[in-house]
Specification:
This protein is an alpha/beta fold. The chain has an eight-stranded mixed β-barrel with strand order 1-2-4-5-6-7-8-9. A four-stranded antiparallel β-sheet has the order 10-13-14-15. It has helices at residues 24-29, 48-57, 74-85, 109-123, 134-140, 148-153, 210-216; strands at residues 5-9, 34-40, 43-44, 62-67, 94-97, 128-133, 159-162, 180-190, 200-206, 225-226, 234-236, 245-248, 255-260, 266-271, 276-280. It is built from seven helices and 15 strands.
Length: 285
């Protein structure tokens, strides 16, 4: 079974002292999905808006996560998350990241409950997941013996589990052993291979094959990356043969197809160096 995988990133993956940023064409060439940190506490991740737009441009299914912080009001955190999304909730679920140990005024699973319930009122039927780690959950979630009903409340949220250096993740109650949907299997992936500026990157697997992934999240076939075309092909400024040529492609240049013209004849593409223009759609073979 082919692995369906993708990274999760935050502003840590972008060196603020350089102009380079994250190379989303490169990231998309190695990923089937993408998850970005929307924010934490009472601040929005400084790179979220850019990541969110760029991932959409290269056709990656997108999910966002919010790092719950016990030092800030749960309802205000939920509201700021929705504000950050600005009406674009993404193709994948919202992921509530429960892993902090700040010991703030809003610590404890009772406040997770407030956070999640308020979030639901703001996003309607949008699916919400929980991200956590086995031992953290055991130590901080409701007791499975004395608070069984409270623990079961969290079962309604599908699981994104973090567990490194193992062949299979350990899954805490109330979820069953194989009930995880996403597994963050490393926090030390090769950042360079994925086009980010940090040396290491979080990587995740989906619990199923590509067809199961598309069905689970009601996704159509993504607009593909392509490297096969005529060497003398021009990238044009508009959807006509007479439009100005912006560049001539070299053999094996990597392109991301961003959109199609209404008649399907032309494709808007983005080259690995960021150049965007139009080419005949029949190059995508």
């Amino acid at each position: 079974m082919a692995t369906v995988s993708g990274p999760d990133i935050s502003f840590y993956q972008d060196n603020s002292t350089t102009a380079k940023g994250v190379d989303f064409a490169k990231l998309a060439s190695r990923s089937q999905f993408f998850i970005a940190r929307a924010g934490q506490n009472q601040w929005i991740d400084s790179r979220f808006k850019t990541y969110w737009q760029n991932a959409k441009q290269v056709g990656l299914p997108r999910g966002s996560y919010w790092f719950y912080d016990s030092r800030a009001d749960p309802k205000k955190q939920a509201e700021l998350w929705v504000q950050a999304l600005d009406g674009d909730l993404g193709e994948l679920p919202l992921f509530a990241d429960l892993e902090e140990n700040y010991n703030g005024a809003y610590k404890g699973w009772q406040n997770w409950y407030v956070f999640l319930e308020h979030l639901k009122t703001l996003v309607g039927n949008k699916e919400i997941f929980i991200y956590t780690a086995y031992y953290y959950w055991q130590q901080n979630a409701p007791n499975p013996t004395t608070q069984k009903a409270s623990l079961e409340y969290f079962h309604q949220y599908p699981l994104w589990i973090a567990h490194y250096q193992v062949s299979k993740p350990m899954v805490p109650k109330p979820w069953a052993a194989d009930e995880w949907v996403f597994w963050q299997y490393t926090d030390s992936g090769d950042g360079v291979l994925y086009g980010v500026e940090s040396l290491e990157i979080d990587l995740n697997n989906f619990n199923g094959d590509e067809e199961a992934f598309k069905q689970r999240f009601s996704l159509g076939d993504p607009l593909p990356l392509v490297t096969r075309y005529r060497v003398d092909l021009n990238i044009r400024a508009d959807k006509t043969e007479t439009a100005a040529s912006l560049a001539t492609l070299a053999h094996n240049d990597l392109l991301a197809r961003l959109a199609l013209s209404e008649d399907g004849v032309w494709a808007q593409v983005k080259r690995e160096d960021g150049l965007t223009g139009w080419v005949r759609n029949n190059i995508f073979v």
